[in-house]
Amino acid sequence: MTHSTYTEQAPPSFNLNTLITFADAPCRDEQALAQAELYTHLESQAEAVAPTKDPLTSLDRRIIGEIIEVQPESVRTIWIEGGITVWVQLVGGGRLPFDRDWFATRVAEVKATLSETPLERNERLSDELEKACAVFCLYYGEINWVSFSTKLYQDGRFVGFVGCNQQGWYARPRQYGLNRVAPSAEQVIGLLGVRAAVAA
User: Which DSSP string corresponds to 76-88?
Assistant: First the structure.
């Protein structure tokens, strides 16, 4: 007579010589916490190495905050879904949907009533200066944010001073002298006698 015996095979993670008790359970929680902490650290390191540019400016956040009646800092991001719905993601985790046309109308209305903050002004002027310097292959020194002025250089050679005040953009080739005024950063840099870079 033949006798058959069936046995179950242990899973690969099973170790016969290891005794597991209830006292070991917190270790697993500690390991999960340590793993989560490691992931958080890696994310922060990745952000430090290659920071993601925030698509919303402080003005955007002020406008959105005014429309949905929240603090501007609580707005994380927005996106349009299907060309119809504007979604606003909040820092606390909530999302709010809005009709695209209604939202666009409200943005225009609110934007017309808000005045530009000094930070927003400096951001706008800095972007314009950066684009103008790229046209002429220039770089600039440290910006005086109060008066918004800086020195321009080309190939290590001092070119002149440039800034923006109530009259508009101004430039002068020396520390002292008359300001040459123009409506844009690119035009005022051209008044310094610098030629635009030619594509090779």
Answer: EEEEEETTTEEEE
CA–CA distance, 137 with 196 (Å, rounded to integer): 7
Residue 169, H or E segment: strand 168-172
Q: Which two tokens stand for residue 164?
A: 């923006």
Q: How far is CA 3 from the centre of its chain?
A: 73
CA separation for the pair 78, 87 (Å, rounded):
5
Residue 1: pLDDT over 80: no
Distance set, CA 23 to CA 20, 30, 32 (Å): 8, 12, 16
Cβ atoms of 67 and 111 closer than 8 Å: no
Place of tokens 């006292």: 23
Query: Tell me: the pLDDT tens digits for 137-190?
Result: 999 999 999 999 999 999 989 999 999 998 899 999 887 878 899 999 999 999
- Alpha-carbon gap, residue 88 to 162, rounded angstroms: 39
Whole-number Å distance between alpha carbons of 93 and 187: 45
Q: In degrees rounded to 5, what are phi and psi of residue 13?
A: -80, -5
